[in-house]
Write a structure and sequence with these properties.
This protein is α+β, with helices and mostly antiparallel strands. It has a single domain (3-117), classed as Trna Endonuclease, Chain: A, domain 1, CATH 3.40.1350. The chain is 29% helix and 42% strand. The protein is built from 2 helices and 5 strands. Strands 1-2-3-4-5 form a 5-stranded mixed sheet, sandwiched between helices. The longest helix has 18 residues, at 3-20. The radius of gyration is 14 Å and the shape is globular.
């Protein structure tokens, strides 16, 4: 499976997973300039910006490890723009959904990391 299809599959699995945990999906693939946030959701009056990382195996480490400091800064920029543009004054947090989709054994491992990183003031 190519990376683009794997990414789409992972985002769909993450949305289903979050919905089952009572998250309301607000939007997906929200873009600002050249950056993007995979999922913006809401739960218990908190806006949650979710980065989804999907791999077919963990040979290179857990997928969440690919959310580098640079990627975190990009997500924070997009989140700030979203909150300002939509005049949102709720609590916000940054989560990561890390997925290993192994088609060989038809198994998915999903890890949801709440408060995976913070926006520094």
């Amino acid at each position: 499976m190519d990376q683009k299809l794997l990414g789409i599959l992972g985002e769909n699995m993450a949305m289903e997973f979050l919905s089952e945990k009572a998250y309301k999906i607000k939007t997906t693939n929200y873009r600002f300039k050249k950056w993007e946030v995979d999922i913006i959701a809401e739960k218990e009056n908190t806006i949650v910006f979710v980065e989804v990382k999907t791999r077919q195996n963990d040979y290179l480490g857990e997928p969440w490890r690919a959310v580098t400091k640079a990627k975190q800064r990009q997500i924070i920029r997009v989140a700030h723009e979203y909150l300002v543009l939509h005049n949102i004054h709720q609590e916000a947090r940054f989560d990561v959904v890390s997925i290993i989709h192994d088609p060989a054994i038809q198994r998915n491992q999903i890890e949801h990391i709440e408060d995976a990183f913070y926006a520094m003031l």
